[in-house]
Write a structure and sequence with these properties.
transmembrane, mainly alpha, membrane
């Protein structure tokens, strides 16, 4: 956990965090913002367009918001050097690899390639020795 400076409890600093950990935190937060924007677009579509089932559309919206929150929360936990956040972060990116693959195969080649690249980079950054050491994982 990051120690507070000057006796200020709860203040998070970037001092001492390796670049790999900072990079993966930024990636997680960018992913959270991207999924949140997608969730807002889907919520607008839910209420302005006809859906096959309204319940299904609401469930999709809620799932997107939950995923966005999870990405942001995992980034926050890693910022605070919580070692337990690394494995769920890797798992989320492994799951997203399949999404990127099917996006690319389904005709969204550029978007799928971006998702695949971000996932691979994030997984590599999460398992690098400097990140592992910074999180206190042996």
């Amino acid at each position: 956990m990051v120690e507070p400076e000057n006796g200020q409890v709860g203040r998070v600093t970037f001092k001492g965090l390796p670049a790999t950990l900072l990079a993966v935190i930024c990636l997680l937060w960018l992913e959270a913002v991207a999924v949140a924007v997608l969730a807002v677009v889907q919520i607008v579509n839910t209420f302005t367009q006809v859906a096959q089932t309204f319940t299904g559309a609401i469930a999709e919206d809620a799932l997107l918001l939950a995923i966005a929150g999870l990405f942001g929360w995992l980034g926050w936990l890693l910022l605070n050097r919580r070692a337990g956040a690394r494995n769920p972060s890797v798992a989320m990116h492994l799951l997203a690899l399949a999404i990127g693959y099917f996006m690319a195969k389904g005709g969204l080649v550029a978007a799928g390639a971006i998702v695949l690249a971000v996932c691979v980079v994030a997984i590599v950054l999460l398992v690098l020795p400097s990140t592992t050491r910074a999180l206190g994982i042996k």
